[in-house]
Amino acid sequence: MDFKRLLLAAVLILVAANFSFAKKQKQKTLKSVPAAEKTADGENAEAGAEGAEENPEDNWQVLEWEDDKARLVLKYEVIIEQRDKKGNFSEIRKLVTKDNTPEVKIDPPLEPGFYRYKVISYNLFGAAKAQSDWEEFNIFKAFKPRVNDVSVDVNLTSNIYLDHKNDGIVSFGGRNLFLPSEAPDDVSFTDYVLRSNGGRIIKPLKILSHADNDHRIQFKFDMKDLDVGKYSLVATDASGLKNDPEKGNLLTVRYKKWMDFNICLGYVCPIVLFDDTIQTYFEQSIFPLGATANMTFFPLKRRWGHLGIGVSASYTWMKLEKQEYNLTSNLGTAHLYFAYSHPFFNKHLSLQAHIGAGVTALLGYKFEFEHDIVSDPQSSMNISMMAGIAAQVFVFKGLFVELRADFVAFFIPDDMTFGAVFPSAGVGWQF
């Protein structure tokens, strides 16, 4: 009697353990891929998920799930149902494993479509005691895309020039370039993105045209999303297959003129804001007799703006005429600066900000009295800081008119504090 009770207890323990395992079952994945499909032009495409090895097993379809206590299971039964266009499921296949291995090979392979399956576990006595929840999976047609021809519509090259007029329309040629998914039940489609060298992803605004033989597709991109660099079109098939990197799928975004060099000559009228020496002796703060010149080199051009370096110089003749004497001097400045510029209104207007350092000099500071009495000329040269803004209005090709305002300051402790604004207007040329 005790032996029968022990045997019954053992059976109950095994059944309970098996039931507990069945509740913990988890779908892992549909392990392999559909058999090789035919490409649109009749050639075999690679079958399988991305990275699958080329061997006969790549054409198998295997359902696989997790099992922490497979030793307590005699076998599994897998029921597969297919979903129709109305969303209803119907049973199409029932598979049984030969042992307690938590996977089953689907042979013959399933056609592309939408499916679900559940797993029924059998205990060591061959009784079905528990089953998993339904798990859905999809099988897509596998067509490996190929992109080997990129053409920008405005110039028929693979280059987009940011300093030319662009509409963002780009055509891509190759094979198996299907339209993107249009309905939830699509089993054959292709998704497209541009990927920069830095990994930035850009999606097209819309598709403008598509060839019936799936050999060419045309997109429109937002030009604001494209900056200087190289981009590759990544076409991803519904099955996960991607086109291989090729020279022909590269789109280059750049400036046709990789640098700008501006030269400008103009008129300047310094306005002294603070300096007791000049205002005391010259009895004025505005000096209208001046000239200026500047050169700016922009070797780094991006959509967000252009960065460069430049030099500027100015000369102003300072004179005060009084009955008793005349006072004259020469005010000169020279600065090296960093500049940032940004074009507007289709590059007809450019705004610039700059900051730098250099020297400001008062040269030949002297008094002239009657009877040819002249004081000894005095000169002073000081390190100064400069910051300013400018606007260039392009009137014809590289010809521009520039309005500019620079603030210049230097400080000599216990001697002189000088600060002035240098407004100027000039004409220049951009090379």
Helix-strand layout with pairing:
Elements: H1 2-23, E1 26-30, E2 61-66, E3 73-83, E4 89-96, E5 103-106, E6 113-123, E7 128-131, E8 135-139, E9 146-152, E10 159-161, E11 169-175, E12 190-196, E13 201-202, E14 206-210, E15 216-220, E16 229-237, E17 250-254, E18 260-268, E19 271-274, H2 276-282, E20 290-302, E21 305-321, E22 325-344, E23 349-369, E24 373-374, E25 378-396, E26 399-412, E27 416-430
Parallel strand pairs: 10-17
Antiparallel strand pairs: 1-2, 2-5, 3-4, 3-6, 6-7, 6-8, 9-11, 11-15, 12-13, 12-16, 14-15, 16-17, 18-20, 18-27, 19-27, 20-21, 21-22, 22-23, 23-24, 23-25, 25-26, 26-27
How many strand segments? 27
Count of helical regions: 2
Instruction: Tell me, briefly, the overall form.
Output: elongated
In quaternary terms, these chains amount to single chain
Low-confidence stretches: 6-58
- State the strand order across the main sheet: 18-20-21-22-23-25-26-27
Which range best describes the helical content: under 10%, 10-25%, 25-40%, 40-55%, 55-70% or over 70%? under 10%
The assigned structural class equals: mainly beta
| Rg from Cα | 40 Å
The proportion of strand residues reads over 45%
Distance between the termini: 107 Å
Main beta sheet strand tally, sense and closure: 8 strands, antiparallel, barrel
The residue-averaged pLDDT reads: 83
